[in-house]
Amino acid sequence: MGELIELTHHSLVQHHVPDTGEFVPLLHVVPSKNDQERLLVISPELADVLATVLQRVRTEDGSVPLVAVYGDDRVWSPPMPLLFQRPMGVETVPLGKQSVESLVASAAARTSLRDAQGEPLRFAPHDFRRIFATEAIMNGMPPHIAQLLLGHKDINVTMSYKAVYPEESISAHRAFLARRRGLRPGEEYRSPTDEEWDDFLGHFQRRRLELGECGRAYGTSCVHEHSCIRCSLLRVDPAQRPRLESIRRNLAERIAEAEREGWTGEAEGLRASLSAAIAKLQQLDARAARRTTIVDLGVPAYRDIAGCITAASEDQP
Description:
By secondary structure, the protein is mainly alpha-helical. 48% of the residues lie in helices and 9% in strands.
């Protein structure tokens, strides 16, 4: 969590791909975990969230206030334009670990989610790091790539980042991994080469599609035989809305032609594609509506709590 609260607006960078002209969003993590700095490829959704946070902390003149943070090394940093900060009284202070833990706990409580025993689910910020590792490895990311992203020196630490399962499931799974590793070449559990890392980054270039971007995980092939319009992993670029509307009109015309000619099977397949195109347009509308909606991040400003503090002090003898 120390890496999170030390993020600044300089942590958001972009990599320009010369071949395609695409900008890949990156997150620069300052040395904290094992004293290593890292540059991580992040999803457009996360980049959008961080950009929204940045916009909210800017002052009227567009600058980001400079605040100091007490880091994991127990040393105050120089004033930095931190992403996670809030006004308190007449000054601006960084969001501390306890505040982050409190916000996460409050958000989890509002979901009303419960575990198998019926107890409310509780999350700590570090749990999301484990969730990421679990999802990434289960979806095909090579363990040594996940190790590099997480900043672990030992790959066994990376492989221990698992969701909470019954003890027998954990033991059985670890025994299975130990057997599999014994059969696999040792080079699979090493630091990635430059070529492997370039291939990992190139995955994001190969996901570019006519209507947007494919959201499939690294190392996985297309399971829908490139029928992108029907695929739930297609993330449509809002700029391609006119193209999507043109496809919808074309599908409607082809359905009418198929019905005239008696091509029943063809018409049925086209109707499925038409329904998918309409659903994609509705998703674009919903996304645009969310962008215009203000979301409460749960961080109170001084003006929000001043009245409560005054009332409490007046009640004291």
